[in-house]
């Protein structure tokens, strides 16, 4: 538990006091956000706000994780390192996308195919490496079994596991990316979801089959270290939120949204809670579905729309809701999803 607390504190302190330095550096270099003309008019005042702030979150998370291990003298684990590598790899893809946007002063960065190719390379690498590195109990970071709140009896071939892991990572990273449209919305939602994974990791460690054997125990590799990773991410997002909340002094950009989405999916996969992620990250799911519905309905009806604009948060902007009102209400929805997910996780353990 000392490692969890240390990681959360270090992540928070680094972004809290390091983000202003990043803001000054980005302003000096002119790396400001480009705003689309077809978006809500209120967003035009945000033009030029420093972006790529997700790099601060990534660096803070890495410092917090490694610093926590140095302070507690605990060993690094394969599961923790793989989740961090997934976060960093997707963050690099997002950084290239952001850099092209600010350098060209256009809202278009990487081409869709190039972006998907980058995400695929990182995700497939994570899946392949995750099926290696068994511990003394024979557990690997990535399981061959499909999981909801723990591994089920559904076993998949290696190829299908790799495809499924890729789909999860792509869906989650793009879901967080779509949610990152209002000041503090994705950051605050991520704080709550990572906090849930701290509790899940600590609980799985305490109820691990090598600690507390029985019908309710969990077969998860390195659950406590996954809690340390989640704590580092939560602390880093919490400190960044101070500067990212309305009116935002800095945006995380695709650098941060892809990295956070990758970290969430990595935690879900390695903690054997793949299905549960859809509920814990319920707000990300709702916002992603709003885009899918909007695009599908537009094509089927040849130009008609369900929402005034997608993703969903911009629909509410266009019908007159204030930005802060939308963010707070969406945070409430996110909190309810996280609470429901944790309730389901605990309920499944009680009834196991």
UniProtKB/TrEMBL annotation:
PROSITE patterns: MRAY_1, MRAY_2. One of its GO terms (biological process) is cell wall macromolecule biosynthetic process. The chain crosses the membrane at residues 6-27, 48-68, 74-95, 116-134, 154-172, 184-203, 223-243, 276-298, 318-349. It is found in: Membrane. CDD domains: GT_MraY. It holds the Pfam family MraY_sig1. GO terms for cellular component: plasma membrane. It is a multi-pass membrane protein. Keywords: Membrane, Transferase, Transmembrane, Transmembrane helix. NCBIfam families: mraY. This is Unannotated protein.
